[in-house]
Amino acid sequence: MIPSCSITRHDRRPRTARKQRWNVVGYVIVPGIGGSDDAHWQTLWERQWGSETAIRIEPGSWSQPDLQDWVEAIARAAEVIESRDRDVVLIAHSLGCWATSEWLQQTNSRYPRGALLVAPPDPTSEAFPVDAAPTFVNVAARPLTCPSVVVASTNDPYCDLRVAEEFASSWGSDLKVAGELGHLNSASGVREWTTARELLDRVASR
Predict the structure, then answer these.
(1) Which pTM was predicted?
(2) Which residues contact 127 (CB under 8 A, 6 or more apart)?
(3) How far apart are CA 193 and CA 206, in angstroms?
(4) What band does 22 get if pLDDT is binned at 50, 70 and 90?
(5) In b/e form, how buried is each residue of 51-82, taking b as 16+ CB within 10 angstroms?
(6) In terms of DSSP bridges, do strands 25-30 and 148-152 run parallel, antiparallel, or are they unpaired?
């Protein structure tokens, strides 16, 4: 059973005009290093939505991540979503959170509806894959340009909860603490992860 999330609110994001509420959303899936496997909640959600509603990014550097390559992959996926007259909602896990953050800083895209940032890793921690992802080491959390929620667990081997709280504050994101669920991946056993789907629905409806 998945523990209920506790809620901490941070409201430092820039204020911009709200989108029309009746617009349909499309989802950009941004996995972590290597992509998400078949049992990962991102993959299960993507299958449920189908390719017309959700697009997974396709960088050329899945196993040796290059930050700008990932940012450009997000831009391509977002462009496809927007071409279907849908608002963009980003769903990121692990290293994908940092790529999403950087894309939001760089993009000239129309105002995204929101972002769900799950288990962002701490680039300064000993567990961070520095050799595989050196371009991600110097990333910094800066205020995001859309509503966002950070989901963190209390025992993530890649990020202490205190650090995740700092990321959420710097991004201007709400923080949801999901309990002892590790890195919130397939090994965490969350499967379809109903609790996170409810959080996503809140982000998408803002």
Answers:
(1) 0.89
(2) 121, 157, 158
(3) 21
(4) very low
(5) eebbbbbebebbeebbbebbbbbbbebbeebe
(6) unpaired
